Amino acid sequence: MARIAGVDLPNEKRLDIALTYIFGIGRATAHKILTTTKLDPSKRVSALSEEESAVLRAEIENNYRVEGTLHTEVGMSIKRLMDIGSYRGLRHRRGLPARGQRTKTNARTRKGPKKSPGSLKKK
Question: Region Disordered: which residues (predicted)?
Answer without folding.
Answer: 90-123
